[in-house]
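Tokens help. Consider this.
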Amino acid sequence: MSTRDALALARSLDLDLVEIAPTAQPPVCRIMDYGKFKFDEAQKAKESRRKTLNVGVKEMKYRPKIGPGDFDTKTRLVEKFLNEGHKVKITIMFRGRESAHPELGKRILDRIIEKLAEVAKVESAAKLDGRNMIMVLGPEKKAKPKVVESLKVEELQEVAPSVSAEVNVEEG
């Protein structure tokens, strides 16, 4: 089809003639509503940005002399963060003479790992950093992170089918 015929056909349909593959022989063009196409592309990009999961690093601080109730509460919160898909940095804070006994901190970290074995994996092993012992846990691949459910906009919107035709344009 010649360029003039393609342009005339596009104008008669009140649409645009858009060049798809200019390097092809002959060049490939498509008859479409270009404004609607650009709008739909922007909406798709916006929707994909909205659906991305923000993985942050949460931190939970423990002490070597933590009681069983506080330990359970903090560990439950760590489990909640992991189920949401976040990484969790666990810090054991030592004070005074407690820093002479890092095995107490290691024991607490081992209890945390044991309790969260099914939902967490150790990303960074326990290491002593000054007065703190730090370990990073990440969500287990099997545990599905909670993604915020969108309001199924796609089902609510009925999109009218757009007129689209591909045309090979001959120079002339």
User: Anything to note?
Assistant: The radius of gyration is 29 Å. The domain at 3-52+150-168 is CATH 3.10.20.80 (Ubiquitin-like (UB roll)). Residues 85 and 145 are 5 Å apart (CA to CA).
